[in-house]
Write a structure and sequence with these properties.
The complex is a heterodimer of chains A (133) and B (107). Chain A has 133 residues and is mainly β. In chain A, the strands form 2 sheets. In chain A, strands 2, 4, 5, 6, 9, 10 and 11 form a 7-stranded mixed beta sheet that branches. In chain B, β5 and β6 form a beta hairpin. The chains are: A mainly beta (133), B mainly beta (107).
Chain lengths: 133, 107
């Protein structure tokens, strides 16, 4: 059974970079069976989609060329956010640059099946990130 | 961008009641809409996909309907474990995603 677990610092200073890791178990991030996403949720508000990644299992992976990996980003955050993965560790990552207090939220790593790329059916437990000096 | 308006933002109901939550999209999104349930301190869980498809393990008292711009989530015979916040999520043909503002179902 697929399980996701977020990790990373709970406190980040304004203007710095937020970096989170999602550890995946019960399935391979390079199998092509799932899409991998990050979603955040500020306290008392609805979820906000950040980014999505897909690794095509049918193509040989070249880590230097990052072939067979497709990514998608929220238009409102595209200039600050990056999603990436490490197939050897079965992890994927989120980096968010130049953070402000508005980036304070619970951050979730999420998966969705390849037949429903934005039907987010498996969620990690979430990790609270606070942006404060 | 497609906007999604969810209503009401909160409602009070009793065990056994029938509850309806609505989401309205700013333009035709066919059936590109999912529904989630979230309990305090927990991650959302997917209840209904593509407007009306009940996810595996979700009780049959939950149902979804609608297409185009108007969608409904109905809970028949509300149970104590159904008190939670519900979100709709729309997507378009480019898989751009927006969540609704949520509906808190309270006792």
């Amino acid at each position: 059974q697929l399980q996701l677990q977020e990790s990373g610092p709970g406190l980040v200073k304004p203007s710095q970079t937020l970096s989170l890791t999602c550890n995946v178990s019960g399935g391979s991030i390079s199998s092509g069976t799932y899409y991998w996403s990050w979603i955040r949720q500020p306290a008392g508000k609805g979820p906000e989609y950040l980014a999505r990644m897909y690794i095509d299992g049918s193509i040989d992976y070249n880590p230097s060329l990052k072939t067979r990996v497709t990514t998608d980003y929220s238009p409102s955050l595209k200039s600050r956010v990056t999603i990436s993965g490490d197939t050897s560790k079965n992890q994927f990552f989120l980096t968010l640059n130049s953070v402000t207090a508005a980036d304070t939220a619970v951050y979730y790593c999420v998966s969705s099946p390849n037949w429903s790329p934005v039907g987010f059916d498996i969620w990690g437990q979430g990790t609270l990130v606070t942006v404060s000096s | 961008d497609i906007q999604i308006t969810q209503s009401p933002s909160s409602l009070s109901a009793s065990v056994g009641d029938r509850v309806t939550i609505t989401c309205q999209a700013s333009q035709d999104i066919s059936t590109y809409l999912h529904w989630y349930q979230q309990k305090p301190g927990k991650a959302p869980t997917l209840l209904i996909s593509d407007a009306s498809n009940l996810e595996s393990g979700v009780p049959s008292r939950f149902s979804g309907s609608g297409s185009g711009t108007d969608f409904k989530l109905t809970i028949n015979s509300l149970q104590p474990e159904d008190f939670a916040t519900y979100y709709c999520q729309q997507y378009d043909y480019l898989l751009r995603v927006t969540f609704g503002g949520g509906t808190k179902v309270e006792i």
